[in-house]
Design goal:
Helices cover 4% and strands 48% of the residues. It is built from 2 helices and 20 strands.
Length: 358
């Protein structure tokens, strides 16, 4: 970059209709001499201190920024070429704290209102989903001083980021009154990032390309004509996934996102950290299986509701499936608890699974 200018207010219509600052950048050109440079920046966890939430050893952290630039003549005083590249790599073990079903809840034991553990069982249709949460390795969460069935799990899920950025500029001194140049810039990156649940991750990819050509012609000592043409293209894709092998509700698809809340509201707050695969840019209209909810005591904690709702016939969950197809019904309708009156219906929900209890 040779120079830049920032317009923060009262800029002309040529900058478009978007609010905010406008940044104009002039890229470096090649010269009659060959010049280049290179750089490398490294940061790691060798001298890091332990985070308060770190469990065990200090998690890995490594960040590399590197690149270089090279410019020179193709034809002296006439044609020039300049290019630069910058790379970014990061591997970072995050410090995560997740709220998960405690070890007793996984075995079907839940505390009652007096805090006494009682066996309620785990429905066979729900048992595989418990693998979508990490196992408790932290303290139990207490409700009014009593066990709640929810505990903490500490982990260091790794985040991986890759970015490659490059730009190239070509200059042509056509004559004493004309100058032509062309610039091409590309930015390509990917990121693999865990959510608050280390077993629920998001993949992101971004690619941007910008090309421009400009010709300047000196008409007179007081008049300059500039002709410019540009093209830009960008793509952004993200999708959720889980490394846990849990059968999805649609053959060949991963299990959807699971949110355990304390109500049947469409966007009820999650009591336990969400699990499964979250929404992505490849959303589809989903078909859903639901069952008629009945009234239960609102004083139960979410973990107790999950086990009791799926371990007895007192109430039933509402389940919206993710990654299903409107022309292909889900495959597990027979797995609904008997007597719950499950039925198939069309739903606007896309890429999302919801377990909500009354």
């Amino acid at each position: 970059m040779r120079e830049f200018n920032v317009e923060t207010d009262t800029y002309g219509a040529s900058y478009g209709k978007r609010d905010g600052a406008q940044v104009s950048i002039v890229t470096t050109s090649g010269t009659n001499q060959l010049h280049g440079s290179a750089f490398e920046f490294l940061r790691n966890s060798v001298l890091d201190a332990r985070n308060y939430f770190d469990a065990g050893s200090i998690p890995e952290f490594q960040r590399n920024q590197f690149g270089g630039a090279l410019g020179g003549p193709i034809r002296a005083d006439k044609l020039f070429l300049f290019g630069s590249y910058e790379g970014f790599r990061q591997n970072w073990g995050l410090s995560a704290v997740s709220l998960v079903p405690d070890n007793q809840a996984r075995q079907g034991y839940l505390p009652n209102s007096s805090g006494v553990e009682q066996y309620v069982g785990v429905n066979s249709a729900i048992a595989p989903l418990l693998a979508l949460w990490p196992v408790q390795n932290g303290p139990e969460l207490l409700s009014n001083g009593l066990p709640s069935g929810i505990a903490e799990a500490f982990s260091h899920p790794p985040q991986h980021i890759r970015e490659d950025f490059g730009t190239t500029r070509f200059d042509d001194n056509i004559g004493s009154k004309d100058l032509l140049f062309a610039v091409f810039t590309v930015d390509d990156s990917t990121a693999n990032t865990p959510t608050a649940n280390p077993l629920s991750l998001v993949n992101e990819s971004l690619r941007e390309q910008v090309a421009s050509v400009q010709e300047q012609h000196v008409v007179s000592p007081s008049l300059l004509n500039t002709a410019r043409i540009g093209f830009s293209r960008a793509s952004y894709f993200f999708t959720g996934y889980t490394p846990v092998s849990v059968p999805g509700w649609v053959t060949g698809k991963q299990v959807g996102a699971i949110v355990i809340s304390g109500s049947t509201a469409s966007n009820g707050a999650s009591t336990i950290t969400g699990a499964g695969t979250n929404v992505g840019s490849n959303n589809k209209t989903a078909a859903a299986i639901s069952s008629r909810p009945t009234t239960t005591s609102t004083g139960r904690v979410a973990a107790s509701r999950l086990r009791q709702a799926c371990g007895s016939s007192a109430c039933s969950p509402t389940i919206c499936l993710r990654k299903t197809s409107t022309d292909r019904p889900p495959q597990h309708s027979a797995n609904l608890p008997s007597g719950h009156g499950g039925h198939i219906h069309r739903s606007p929900f896309a890429h999302r699974t919801r377990l909500a209890f009354p």
